[in-house]
Every structure is written in C-alpha cells, then in structure tokens.
Amino acid sequence: MKKIDITGQRFGRLVVLSDTGKKSGIHTIWLCQCDCRKLVEVRGSDLRSGDTKSCGCLRKEIAKEIVKKVMTIHGDGKRGREARLHRVWRNMKSRCYNPNSINYKYYGDKKIKICDEWKDNYIAFKLWALANGYQDDLTIDRIDGDGDYCPKNCRWLTLFENLRNRSFKRWGEKGE
User: Fold this and answer.
1) Rounded to two decimals, what is the model's pTM?
2) Which of 34, 41, 101, 143 could form a disulfide with 55 if both were Cys (CB 3.0 to 4.6 A apart)?
3) How many CB atoms are closer than 10 A to CB 158?
4) Residue 128 Cα distances to 61, 87, 139, 150, 157, angstroms
5) Who's near 165: CB < 8 A, 6+ residues apart?
C-alpha cells in the first residue's frame, strides 16, 4: 500500500507537520500541531477518519460546556437534588420573567431585570454569590429596591434582615 503524504493538511484542530517514521501496524504515525500549540503524534487513519481532531483539548472543552449546561439546567445539588443556590437563581428568574409567577407583579411588572451576566448563566451567578458571602441561611437582597439584580445591587442578608429591610422600604420607615 502506497503512503499518501498529508504533510501540511489540516484535520480538525490539527495540522500535520511531518511523518515521524513510526508505524502502528500498517499505519503511519504523523507529528501534528494542535491549534492550542501542543504537539501530538497521531495515526494517519485516525486523522482521515475524523476519530482524532485535536490533542485532547477539544474533548475537554466539550466536556466543560456539557457540565456548564447540566449545572445551569439542573443545578449542582447532590444525589439528584437541586442545590439551594440554584433554586435562588431559578426563583429570581421566575419573579422577573415569568408572568405566571406569584411574585411577578412585584418584579417583572415593575421592569426589574437580571443582568446579562447572570440571566442565563448560573455558573457566573454562583461564582459571584460564593465570592460575596453566600451561605445557605442567607437570602438575596437588592440594595436599591427599584434596581435590577446585578453584582453592584445585590447582597446576602438573613431572612430577618431582609424582611425588616422590606418593611422599611414598604412603609417609608428609616432603618437604624
């Protein structure tokens, strides 16, 4: 069987640099450079069939995206249960965007929104929450009650602090 020179050809993220002089059975092993700059040796048949498209970085990126989507959809709780923080995020979205939500009239009807950074990205919300004092016994509070949910306008309070804060806002009283 005559060897076909594939030097310089691109296969997915890999560009073939040279024949290594090695064989795997009857298959030539090629030295390739991935778009991420890593060098890798690959069987020519795996390149041509599409079985190998990168040095492995593509698989890692796809896995990371899958994990991100699963966590965004299902939360990151244990044993199939939704994590409390994910529930906070989901309920925040419901209050602002779901007209069927019992609290929509206090949020969505008043044009309260969630910043683009958090709206469809649970991971971004989670990272902010954990870096800003989130604990399972705290509730999210908007500092400016007429403002949107965003990093600059949100904080974590106990339920008692949040209820007291809400009553001050509602009846025009001033806090201590």
Assistant:
1) 0.55
2) 34
3) 13
4) 22, 15, 14, 10, 15
5) 141, 157, 175
The amino acid at 159: L
Closest CA to 44 of 17, 84, 70: 17
Identify whether the C-beta of residue 95 lies closer than 8 Å to the C-beta of residue 103. Answer: yes
Compute the residue count for the chain: 176
Question: What is the tens place of the pLDDT at every residue in 56-86?
Answer: 999 888 887 776 666 666 667 776 678 899 9
> Is the pLDDT at 171 greater than 50, yes or no?
no
Residue 58 burial (10 A CB sphere; 0-12, 13-18, 19+)? middle
Burial code of 63-80, b = ≥16 C-beta within 10 A, e = fewer?
Answer: eeeeeeeebbeebeeeee
Tokens of 45: 């048949």
